[in-house]
Amino acid sequence: xxxxxKGTMDILPDETPLFRKIEAIVREEAERYGFGEIRTPxxxxxxxxxxxxxxxxxxxxxxxxxxxxxxxxxxxxLRPEGTASVVxxxxxxxxxxxxxxxxFYYIINCFRHEAPQAGRSREFFxxxxxxxxxESPTADATVIAVAASVLSRLGLRGVTLHLNSIGxxxxxxxxxxxxxxxYKSNEATLCDTCRDRLGRNPLRxxxxxxxxxAALAPAAPRTVDHLCEGCRAHFDELCSMLDAMGISYxxxxxxxxxxxxxxxxxxxxxxxxxxxxxxxCGGGRYDGLVESLGGPALPGIGFGxxxxxxxxxxxxxxxxxxxxxxxxxxxxPLGKAATVTAMAxxxxxxxxGIYAECDLMERSLKAQMKYAGKLGAAYTLILGDTEVAxxxxxxxxxxxxxxxxxxxxxxxx
Length: 413
Fold this sequence. Notes:
Number of domains: 2
Largest sheet: 8 strands, mixed
Number of strands: 16
CATH superfamily of the largest domain: Bira Bifunctional Protein, Domain 2
CATH class of the largest domain: Alpha Beta
Low-confidence stretches: none
Strand content: 15-25%
Structural class: alpha+beta
Strand order of the largest sheet: 1-5-6-11-10-9-7-8
CATH topology of the largest domain: BirA Bifunctional Protein, domain 2
Radius of gyration: 28 Å
Helix content: 25-40%
Oligomer: single chain
Number of helices: 14
Mean pLDDT: 92
Order of helices and strands: HEEHHEEHEEHEHHHHEEEHEHEHEHEHEE
């Protein structure tokens, strides 16, 4: 038997209603805040992610699914995240010259070759937003508010917002120097991955999960203590806005995010009770990304939410139950002539917007009634030769057992 590839998942019919519920809520909330939906290709030129996500990141170095295009020989990768593709679409379609801000949201599948575990798979589904054109902390506060509103609508109460600023190109060099100096003095304690990161991407040392590395993080230099005047003012204004909007947060110097394009504001929403993969939303500002991908110097900020992790958090919170969709009516025919009438009746009701079911298995009446009950049908209509000849039949209420005579050609439920 051929089985699914390790790290992927089948989403079965009894699970898709929950996915649809989440998708409906995120669409409603994003559009309430003025974001328009964008859809980008599942695969892109590899260079887009190398330049956009960063060639020093684990995503690019270890996790991308990359292959050669057999027609042109170029390198192509399945998207590991959504932001780089949206920036490419913004530039390629000339949206960077339109009125600002430009605000987008998306629901996409992404691919990363990671060790599968609860809340982390190699194909995963993500809701994200991106805002371009505004340097103001009002843009930061808006995208954070969208995320907070979605999580609230999903019934997640044990979720906390962790907030940090990692500075800009003006203040980052001094912080990097202080950070490297601190970890150099503790280099013997670092894991092999962090020793490698020390020279390439020292910010990533702050959120290493290795116990010995994690023990060093609390005493490491803090980004918020090395901000330039502009970054400090930006962060303070953002905090003031969140206070005024009633969005609670914790300033957390360990929040740095894993991609190279982040600047200034970074944030994560962290859920209780779902294990190690507790970050249900992460994002931040990326003011140099558009320029690095060939566009103008255009600031941006956004976030991504993993839908599978949202489901884990909803289950932990007891808010993942979605009522099953059940037929309004089950039409039970007896014989071939009655089956034709039953099919015509179901089609008429469906065209009127009613969920109607009909026997497809040529079952006995007893088996059909049992099946109608299993489906949870509200009503049943039994059609035999007598009913077809007279044009009238008994409509049974499955809850009360009451029956009403109806005209087969015109009745509704």
